[in-house]
C-alpha cells in the first residue's frame, strides 16, 4: 500500500488511500468554499509531485471537501490583502513590480502544472461551485467528471484579469469548439453539466457528489489494475503528442517504447488474458 496517511499531512488538504494503488486528494477548506490561498497551491504542487513518484500509487482522484464547492477559485480577499492584487506598495517602479508579478504568476502556474506533470493519471471531479481556479486545476487533470448540479465558470474577467494560470492555454485543446471556449472565457458566464459534457470538457456526469465520487473511484481502480508501465507511458505520449504533429508523436512513441516494450508487464498481461486470471504488476 501507499505511504501512511499521516505522511501526507498538508494544510487544507486530505490525502487518503481508499483502495489498492489509488490516492484520493481532497481540497479541504469547505468553510470558505475551498477557495485557494497561497499555501494551498503550494501544497497542491507538493502533494502531486510526491504522488507522481510514489511507487505504490497508480491513479489519483481529486475532489473538494463538503457539498458546496470543488473550489470557488482564488480567495480574492486574501489576495487583495498584501498579496497578488495589493497595489498600495509604490516603493518600486513599474518595471520592477512587473518582474515580481511575472515571477509570482510563473510560480503559481508551475504549481497547477504539477497536476498535469504527475506521472499518474489524475481524475478531477467538479462538484458544487467550480469557478476560476477550479477550471485551471481541472484542465491540468487527465479526466474530468462532474455532477448534474455543478456550476462552472471561467470567472477571471469578472475580477478584472485575464485568466493566467492555465485555462486560456488549455481550454481550447480540451473542447471541440474554439468559439465556445472564447465565449465562456470572455463572458465569465456560468454553465452546467449538460453543456460541459456536450463540448467535451467533462467525460462523465453523476447525479450527485456521492455517485460521482464512486464513479471516479471505480475509474481510478480500473486504471490502477493495468500495467503501471503502460499507464505512465500512455499518459506521457498523449500529453507529448497533443501539441505536436502526428509525425512527431509517432517518433516519440517509437523512442519511448523501444525501452518500455522490454517490460515484464507485457508477459504478465498476455498470460493473464489467456489464463483468465488477474495480473499482478510490480511497483513502479
UniProtKB/TrEMBL annotation:
This protein's name: ClpP/crotonase
Localisation: Peroxisome
Family to which this protein belongs: Belongs to the enoyl-CoA hydratase/isomerase family.
Organism: Decorospora gaudefroyi
UniProt GO cellular component terms: mitochondrion; peroxisome
The protein's annotated pathway: Lipid metabolism; fatty acid beta-oxidation; Mycotoxin biosynthesis
Domain of life per record: Eukaryota
Molecular functions per Gene Ontology: delta(3,5)-delta(2,4)-dienoyl-CoA isomerase activity
GO biological process: fatty acid beta-oxidation
Chief localisation class: other
Classification via Pfam families: ECH_1
UniProt cross-references to InterPro entries, sorted A to Z: ClpP/crotonase-like_dom_sf (IPR029045), Ech1-like (IPR045002), Enoyl-CoA_hydra/iso (IPR001753), Enoyl-CoA_hydra_C (IPR014748)
Keyword annotations of the record: Acetylation, Fatty acid metabolism, Isomerase, Lipid metabolism, Peroxisome, Virulence
Amino acid at each position: 500500500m501507499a505511504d501512511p496517511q499521516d505522511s501526507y499531512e498538508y494544510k487544507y488538504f486530505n490525502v487518503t488511500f481508499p483502495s489498492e494503488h489509488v490516492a484520493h486528494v481532497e481540497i479541504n477548506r469547505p468553510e470558505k468554499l475551498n477557495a485557494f490561498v497561497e499555501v494551498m497551491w503550494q501544497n497542491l504542487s507538493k502533494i502531486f509531485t510526491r504522488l507522481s513518484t510514489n511507487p505504490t500509487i497508480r491513479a489519483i482522484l481529486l475532489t473538494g471537501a463538503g457539498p458546496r464547492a470543488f473550489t470557488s477559485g482564488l480567495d480574492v480577499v486574501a489576495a487583495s490583502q498584501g498579496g497578488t492584487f495589493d497595489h498600495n506598495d509604490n516603493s518600486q517602479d513599474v518595471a520592477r513590480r512587473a518582474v515580481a508579478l511575472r515571477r509570482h504568476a510563473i510560480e503559481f502556474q508551475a504549481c497547477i502544472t504539477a497536476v498535469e506533470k504527475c506521472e499518474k493519471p489524475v481524475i478531477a471531479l467538479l462538484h458544487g461551485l467550480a469557478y476560476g481556479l477550479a477550471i485551471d486545476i481541472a484542465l491540468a487533470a487527465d479526466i474530468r467528471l462532474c455532477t448534474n448540479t455543478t456550476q462552472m465558470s471561467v470567472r477571471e474577467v469578472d475580477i478584472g484579469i485575464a485568466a493566467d494560470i492555465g485555462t486560456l492555454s488549455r481550454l481550447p485543446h480540451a473542447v471541440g469548439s474554439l468559439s465556445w471556449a472564447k465565449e465562456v472565457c470572455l463572458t465569465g458566464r456560468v454553465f452546467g453539466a449538460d453543456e460541459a459534457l456536450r463540448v467535451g470538457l467533462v467525460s462523465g456526469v453523476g447525479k450527485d457528489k456521492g455517485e460521482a465520487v464512486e464513479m471516479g473511484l471505480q475509474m481510478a481502480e480500473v486504471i490502477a489494475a493495468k500495467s503501471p508501465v503502460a499507464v505512465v507511458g500512455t499518459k506521457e505520449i498523449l500529453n507529448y503528442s497533443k501539441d505536436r504533429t502526428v509525425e512527431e508523436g509517432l517518433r516519440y512513441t517509437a523512442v519511448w517504447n523501444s525501452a518500455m516494450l522490454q517490460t515484464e508487464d507485457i508477459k504478465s498481461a498476455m498470460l493473464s488474458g489467456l489464463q483468465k486470471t488477474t495480473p499482478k504488476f510490480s511497483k513502479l
